[in-house]
C-alpha cells in the first residue's frame, strides 16, 4: 500500500482531484488537511494556506496516479509524493478491493 501526498490551493481544488481519481478507481480513499506552507518560488519566499490531500492506493498504481494528478493539477510544479505504508489486513484488503 502507498499514500500519495499532494497539496492544493484550497479544499475545492483538492476535492476535484480526489473525485477524478476516485471515479477512475485509482484510489480508494482521500483525507484532506488544512495546512500552512512556506516555500521558495522563483527566488521569493511565499507563505500560503493550502489543502493537503492524502490518497490511499496500492503500490502498483503509483505511476498511473502520479500521471493523472500531474495531468489535471493546475500548479506549474505540483507536489506529488509517494509514501510507502503498511496497514492492518482488513484495511489493506478493502483498499485492494475498491481500486483497479
TrEMBL record:
Pfam families: CutA1. It comes from the Bacteria. GO terms for biological process: response to metal ion. GO terms for molecular function: copper ion binding. PANTHER family: DIVALENT CATION TOLERANCE CUTA-RELATED, FI09726P. Belongs to the CutA family. This is Divalent-cation tolerance protein CutA. It comes from Candidatus Buchananbacteria bacterium RIFCSPLOWO2_02_FULL_46_11b.
